[in-house]
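User: quick one, sequence for these tokens?
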């Protein structure tokens, strides 16, 4: 026993899933279809992270949420299932191809009407929302897109969230490369600098949760 976060090896990971996974069949099938895309599959969040985000959305009683980076729609579907029937995810992505896979499963799960997909650069969509006076109208945001855009997405999400709203930012441990002094590619540098900026940002309460590839939670104060 130790007072630091436990190391999760394959055996323990399998146990976590066997002891707690509630992944609905529709999500499992979406995950399987996405896995057929090969290495791109890494862009999809893990099932235990999807379940965690479902819980987070319920905890903040989310009605209206943002998603920056949809890919094939696993995270959007996880959150959509947690929203009330009149809830809404405003989902930003630039790919018709990948999001169209998600759309089929969203509709099949009966939550397609909750997901307002905007195919455009997310920065533009978020700026339009701010220009339209949507400040403080969102309860939850998930940021999982190009890593060099993180700081900009975060600032916009913070404006659009209500006080007490939660922003979840994905891949903040970046396969451990953030802690490897030899890793200095652009994405690693961007995530490292984003993490550093957030560390003492007193506009939010903060926790970097080692689930999936690292999920930072920031609650707007
Ligand atoms: Ca991700």
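Assistant:
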């Amino acid at each position: 026993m130790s007072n630091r976060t436990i190391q999760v090896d394959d055996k323990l990971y399998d146990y976590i899933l066997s002891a707690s996974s509630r992944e609905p069949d529709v999500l499992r099938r979406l995950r399987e279809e996405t896995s057929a895309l090969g290495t791109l599959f890494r862009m999809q969040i893990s099932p235990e992270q999807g379940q965690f985000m479902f819980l987070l959305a319920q905890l903040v009683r989310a009605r209206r949420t943002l998603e920056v980076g949809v890919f094939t729609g696993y995270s959007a579907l996880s959150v959509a299932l947690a929203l009330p029937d009149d809830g809404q995810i405003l989902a930003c992505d630039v790919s018709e191809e990948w999001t169209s896979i998600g759309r089929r499963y969203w509709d099949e799960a009966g939550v397609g009407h909750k997901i307002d997909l905007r195919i455009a650069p997310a920065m533009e969509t978020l700026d339009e929302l701010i220009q339209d006076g949507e400040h403080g109208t969102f309860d939850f945001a998930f940021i999982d897109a190009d890593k060099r855009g993180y700081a900009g997405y975060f600032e916009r999400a913070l404006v659009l969230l209500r006080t007490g709203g939660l922003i979840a930012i994905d891949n903040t441990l970046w396969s451990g490369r953030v802690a490897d002094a030899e890793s200095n590619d652009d994405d690693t540098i961007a995530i490292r600098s984003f993490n550093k900026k957030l560390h003492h940002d007193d506009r939010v309460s903060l926790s970097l949760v080692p689930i999936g590839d690292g999920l930072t939670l920031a609650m707007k104060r």
